[in-house]
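Field reference: sequence -> structure
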Amino acid sequence: QVQLVESGGGSVQAGGSLRLSCAASGNIFRIASMGWYRQAPGKQRELVANIISEGSTNYADSVKGRFTISKDNAKNTVFLQMNSLKPEDTAVYYCKLLARLLGGTWSDYWGQGIQVTVSS
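Structure field:
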């Protein structure tokens, strides 16, 4: 099994910054990608950013230039540095991992979600 532990959420004022972390543990053989999604009330879950194994990144247009995704391969941890936060960034943020377990197949794994609230 895989465990994803998210941290770093909270409440900030517009223009502020937060840094989310997601640490993966378990019988992980290989990781293909790690990423962050978010879901605001009444809206569908959407991709915020992801990073694949060789380091290429992908961002939602709404966060380009403000958010930066990075990873620590040795610790199976992904980070999301969020700067210049806006009220519309308010959502529950979810970490997602695409990985293969020892003796297993490729699967998606999700964190429990962490609240980010940006006030105007």
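Note: The radius of gyration is 14 Å.
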